[in-house]
Amino acid sequence: QSALGAKTSTMSNARSAIKDARTYMPDEDMLRFEPLIRTTDAGIVALLAAESKEDADDWETHAPPSWLLSWNEVATLFTKDAARWEESSRRILLGVYDGYIGSHTRATKRFPSRCCVTMVGNIPPHVLGGAVTETMFSSGFAGRWIVMPSPPLRRAVPRPNMNGGLNWSEIREQVRTLARLVADSSIVGNVYDLMDDGANAVYDTWYMRYFDQHNAAAGDTSTDRAAELWGRARITVVKLAALAAVARSFRDVRRLSDVVIEAQDVGWAILVVERSLDYFRPLLEETGSGHDPEVEALLRFARSMGATDEEQALTVREFMVKHRSNG
Questions:
Q1: pTM: predicted TM-score of the whole model, two decimal places
Q2: Other beta carbons less than 10 A from residue 140's beta carbon
Q3: Residue 148: which of 279, 283, 242 has the closest Cα?
Q4: Contact predicate 286/239, CB 8 Å
Q5: Each residue's pLDDT tens digit, 254-278
Q6: Is there a contact between 194 and 188 (Cβ–Cβ < 8 Å)?
Q7: Contact in structure between 66 and 115 (CB atoms under 8 Å)
Q8: Residue 324 buriedness (CB in 10 A; 0-12 / 13-18 / 19+)
Q9: 25 close to 60: Cβ distance less than 8 angstroms
Q10: Of 182, 195, 200, 293, which has the highest C-beta tally within 10 A?
Q11: Residue 68, phi then psi, degrees to nearest 5
């Protein structure tokens, strides 16, 4: 599944787009792309935080550099028995999601600063399902990610197409226009102020539906975990809606502050986030139940092999043979 996710082609296209966009920006350093090699807290801080107090101060009143980070396999972040460095990386990323990064280690000489980061990574579904812990829900870490399952492979592609088969000349023109718009680093302000009445109505309806559901079942363990997940997702909806509005109208506005978030933008963002929430919901009941996730994974495999009751039970030898033959 990792190999078939088309992540490498996607990131290759993104790298090309950013390379083109940088050539059209007055300050090309404002747009950056990096594969994340040093995944410790020190490595993340060294890459993203301001190198000087002057930069940190400037990023308080002007937009900080925008990063697209590619973290190849993020399974290490979703590990039940995480090492100390993995826990530290999670803690740093919690702040990055909220747009701020500070140094918690002496291994780097960086200054706490604002940051703007989009991160893309890959994790096989069975690894994610067996690794998410109650702490990942309660801390908001799980809710800060959007799960986007890879579509099934519908046609043979023995040799990858250049740029994924996309019309790159058309994309390059779009990137050029968008880069000039983004080059205006003026502070937009409160993103909610960009939402029109229709967008507010769609968002408020969705928000109140979840709020009422969680309020009615407060105290239930799985409901409390769902509330933590949804609490982060509602902020993600606004972020995605803003991106959708920019993508829809960037040819028609002169500044980012002129963008208007409409009902269709919020509706699209809700659909994306709902798909992600649907992926996490089955884990809410299992997480924190005291069951060993490795044992649960083996039981799920046994059920998939037809061992659904005592009459269909598999012997240990039969189970091991089937399990090995299926990888």
A1: 0.71
A2: 17
A3: 279
A4: no
A5: 888 889 999 999 999 999 988 888 8
A6: yes
A7: no
A8: exposed
A9: no
A10: 195
A11: -120, 115
